[in-house]
Amino acid sequence: xxxxxxxxxxxxxxxxxxxxxxxxxxxxxxxxxxxxxxxxxxxxxxxxxxxxxxxxxxxxxxxxxxxxxxxxxxxxxxxxxxxxxxxxxxxxxxxxxxxxxxxxxxxxxxxxxxxxxxxxxxxxxxxxxxxxxxxxxxxxxxxxxxxxxxxxxxxxxxxxxxxxxxxxxxxxxxxxxxxxxxxxxxxxxxxxxxxxxxxxxxxxxxxxxxxxxxxxxxxxxxxxxxxxxxxxxxxxxxxxxxxxxxxxxxxxxxxxxxxxxxxxxxxxxxxxxxxxxxxxxxxxxxxxxxxxxxxxxxxxxxxxxxxxxxxxxxxxxxxxxxxxxxxxxxxxxxxxxxxxxxxxxxxxxxxxxxxxxxxxxxxxxxxxxxxxxxxxxxxxxxxxxxxxxxxxxxxxxxxxxxxxxxxxxxxxxxxxxxxxxxxxxxxxxxxxxxxxxxxxxxxxxxxxxxxxxxxxxxxxxxxxxxxxxxxxxxxxxxxxxxxxxxxxxxxxxxxxxxxxxxxxxxxxxxxxxxxxxxxxxxxxxxxxxxxxxxxxxxxxxxxxxxxxxxxxxxxxxxxxxxxxx
Length: 565
Hints:
This protein is about 75% helix and about 0% strand. Helix 11 packs antiparallel against helix 22 (about 525-540), helix 14 packs antiparallel against helix 15 (about 350-370) and helix 17 crosses helix 21. It is mainly alpha-helical.
């Protein structure tokens, strides 16, 4: 051993070996692993409830799909419905802050909100049961008016109910006017006119005669009831015709297009005649003026409608950045002003005619020069109708109180309804002679011409509403108005019965007979494309709700189905 000069061992020298540089990423990874292993409960819980950390939805059981639907952030159907709920809560909170007691339980707006929400729920339930959605909305309103403990609808004032139904009428007329395609109407002019007017007129006359001798109505109010019950419901008919178009059933003879075009014209015809007759029935002028009432209203309606439509040809101009929105606003505002103003001026038949002619005139120009804007305005009206539909049918059901119904009205009313349906069923095949249909297609047209709903819900309570409002302003009730009010209650009852009976009957009839009575198209190539495009677009524009019941038409849908013949 070596000693130093002091006789002690020298200090030991430790040789340092070179080391590798420290990898920060490995340290961070180990730290993350340790944190994940020993992390807080909140971190583990957050990771578990996040939707992105779950496996794909393929091959999942029902329970697993349900658990996944509750994961965060909200997604799918849950997020869709939560959005609706939050929007309703926000709107209701604003109404409470502005209107106070009116928006609280027992107030008018509270009742309207409850009726609308329950009508939407009723629509969903009816759709799940494969029944027309309008039937569920109508029943929801009936329950909220007549079931003890939940009679929320009794708080709705007649003024609000009548005004909202009038707004719905304006939307229907605007959509009908924009939806009338002059090209399709020219090609099917004779057949469309025959199918639109002949069954409707004969049914109205049959109902009028039945109402006169079965219900004891005056002749005027008998015809008012006849034109109230005659119009076919686009809410039931048009989606069914879209399904036929998709599957190529009856398209060789143009059955779907014929029925949709005819239903639009028939609705307008029924609304206009009903409005004019009702205006004459409530006229307070001399006999001479009552006779001239209808021609005067027609002249006013056509002239003002054409003038307003021509204005919309040029304003807003085609270069306007928001032309579709302004066209929608002007159409809706002018239509509301015409209908409400006509009622105030005692020319209630002129307002609907102004609205229809204005929309048809404007739409004719827009289709030719600016088709995309025409489609945008039509889509906006369809969306507006989507929100007004549950309001309309919910209020229709809520307007009918079982306390006011006379028991004999139900049985006699059903008899009147079936007399009208029988006449329509027998006359429709003769009305389709110009369309060159075979006997099976004629039979199908008769069945498809059954369902009622939209017009009946819009106009069903008009007579009752008018008399109720008029009597509320009188200190000494007018005996004539009191008698007509009773007729109005009977009309409302029969209109509700008509919807409940004919809407499901027609929908079921169309579903079960379309494959047996209609032939599937067998064409190919350019001919098929040429025949399909205009008819498909026309029928799609006529879809009543403009939402989830829309049927998508793949270009090869008929090719896929011809092999199934």
